[in-house]
């Protein structure tokens, strides 16, 4: 998805996609879990937001932006 989007998206958008992808990979490692589309719901949102706060000291606005990118 990211490589295909690089053709039509701005470099800063692609960079944001990569940052979120890396957060998700690290989240999976820390929680010893494999994320599947069927497992992403409100529980995931709460857990991922807590991860971003604890491990990356992100604000609510930044967390919301990361979730928006996932949608």
Largest sheet: none
Number of E-state strands? 0
Low-confidence stretches: none
Strand content: under 5%
Overall morphology: globular
What gyration radius follows from the Cα positions, in whole Å?
13 Å
Which structural class do you get from the secondary structure elements?
mainly alpha
The average pLDDT is: 87
Structure summarized in a few sentences:
The protein has 71 residues and is mainly α.
Describe this structure in words.
The chain has about 70 residues and is mainly alpha-helical. It is built from four helices and no strands. The chain is globular, with a radius of gyration of 13 Å. The two termini are about 15 Å apart. The model has no long low-confidence stretch (mean pLDDT about 85).
Keywords:
4 helices, mainly alpha, 71 residues
Set down the secondary structure blueprint.
Elements lengths: L1 H4 L5 H21 L10 H15 L3 H11 L1
């Amino acid at each position: 998805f990211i490589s295909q989007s690089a053709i039509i998206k701005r470099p800063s958008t692609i960079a944001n996609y990569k940052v979120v992808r890396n957060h998700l990979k690290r989240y999976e490692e820390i929680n010893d879990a494999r994320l599947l589309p069927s497992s992403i719901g409100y529980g995931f949102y709460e857990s991922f937001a807590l991860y971003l706060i604890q491990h990356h000291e992100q604000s609510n606005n930044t967390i919301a932006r990361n979730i928006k990118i996932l949608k």
